[in-house]
Amino acid sequence: MSKLSHYIESAGAILLAVIWISPLLFAFWAAFHSTSDAVNFNIMSAWTLDNFRTAWDGAPWLRYFMNTFLLVTLVLIGQFFFTTLAGFAFAKLEFPGKNLVFILVLMQLFILPEVLIVENYAMVSRLGLFDTLFGVGMPYMASAFGIFLMRQSFKSVPIELHEAARIEGCGLLGILWRVYVPLAKPTYLAYALVSVSTHWNNFLWPLIVTNSPDTRPLTVGLSIFGAPENGVDISVISAATLMSVAPLLIAFLVFQRQFVQAFLRAGIK
Amino acid sequence: MSKHVNNERRRQAIYGWLLLSPAAVMLTVFAFYPSAATFWSSLFSRHTRRKPSEFVGTENYADLFADPTFWLVVQNNLFYAAVTIPVSIGIALAMALWANSKIPLRGFVRTAYFTPTVLPMIAAANLWLFFYTPGLGVLDQIGAFFGLPSVNWLGQPETALWAIIIVTIWKEAGFFMIFYLAALQTIPEDLKEAADIEGTSRWTYTRRIVIPLLMPTTLFIMVNAMINSVKLIDHLFILTKGGPSDASKLILYYIWEMAFAFFDAPHAAAMTILILAVLCIVAAIQFLYLDRRTHYQ
């Protein structure tokens, strides 16, 4: 009896997995076949790379890739800088007003940047950053979530190490740089993975603040390329989609464990 | 001695504020000021060429409340939340229980569940387009196999929002799964042994012991799912653009449309303030009911 239910459950789990992965598999199938072969599910039909060629020629993908790459790098550097300093201040220093400011920072966890698009757009335009990568990245740099994460990580560093470094004559910034930052490496790695995959995938805000191929990230480029007005067929769209998710997807498949751990660590807050 | 302590205190205060100020400036510029400015501009009328903007008090809010589209969008979003939150939590729990048990192909199963999490919503929408396209799409072909007529899933008001909902669930369930997986691994083995000795069935064990122990995780996931039901709207841009006749339009998409397609910033601002109010309520729930952080380690 329990053996039977074990079989049923295993079958259920695998069936769900197949359903879950099927959109990707169909896109993969479509991307490598001509449109008519793809929609007829002609198993024997020939494989082709034409869709990738058509897709590649249809938009400045290299530029889009570059933009996305620069954007996630920029955001990550900014986030590391701002959240390290602020996280350290919250974790290890006593100063008047600290608790009040910390509550304000926590509040920002719920003021999603996505929701403030109207005023952030006005702000970015005022700063002259419209249609620049800085404009796309800046609202995310002082992430409340990152500050919180760093604070938690720095808090767990034993005070003895701090004291020892001080006795050796290390200044406060020196201690932060030589003691806390190296010890928080796993947190930085986790944060980096989450941040990169978030910003690689971000769409609404870049859509609003970019206006030219020179700054547009992949997601926005992909949405313009696939717009029905352009009349691109399903095989070519599939090819373009696979192309733009490939770097992150391959990285995920290779470093799966680290990704899952990272999301977990980040979610725990 | 007390002079030394005073000095140390002053030093810490100076350093504290110095280290904090870069982040504080950024947060002020891109979160606090915009929130306040949104509220302020929601109280003014729209600036047009004929008429400069003027103070109108709560008129923008009154307009929204009198706008049937607004209520339709609110209703859509509530429905979107009411379906995506429980269903994706339920699926996530099932996935975690399966991915945690001894089944064949476990590695593949876990990867398959989690993969949608690393894809952009825009790409997910493109993938699903292949399912929903009338006539050629996978769903219609499966339907045709069973002799069902072709359905325009995205093009008719009855199914468009459902099509959107399914993509959202597909995207977020695997993400929620990993939190359940982590929590499952903290449940002590002896509970299972005790249950076995008592002759408890697996189903009862799951229902009476595992699920209650996962409650804090469920609450945490629920807050995330609530936030997602406001935030996950990218696929609308590809799949339906909120149509047909606003049947699948969600609030954040409507804000975008109001501000950047109709250039009506004051009404978009008023709507933003309403969303922020809802998010504050979600925040309050989190602070009141969630003992943060402690459930996983």
Keyword list:
heterodimer, A: 269 residues, mainly alpha, MetI-like fold, 15 helices, 0% strand, B: 297 residues, 2 domains, 13 helices, 73% helix, flat
Question: What do these coordinates show?
Answer:
The complex is a heterodimer of chains A (269) and B (297). With 269 residues, chain A is mainly alpha-helical. Chain A has one domain: MetI-like (MetI-like fold). In chain A, 76% of the residues lie in helices and 0% in strands. Chain A has helices at residues 2-31, 35-40, 50-58, 61-92, 98-108, 117-126, 133-141, 144-155, 159-167, 172-183, 185-201, 204-209, 218-225, 234-254, 256-268. The longest helix of chain A has 32 residues, at 61-92. Chain A is globular, with a radius of gyration of 23 Å. The two termini of chain A are 43 Å apart. The mean pLDDT of chain A is 86. Chain B has 297 residues and is mostly helical. Chain B folds into 2 domains: 1-41; 59-289, MetI-like (MetI-like fold), CATH 1.10.3720. Helix content of chain B is 73%, strand content 0%. In chain B, helix 3 (68-100) packs antiparallel against helix 4 and helix 3 packs antiparallel against helix 10. Chain B is flat and about 75 Å long. The chains are: A mainly alpha (269), B mainly alpha (297). Chains A and B meet through helix 1, helix 4, helix 5, helix 6 and helix 7 of A and helix 1, helix 3, helix 4, helix 5 and helix 7 of B.
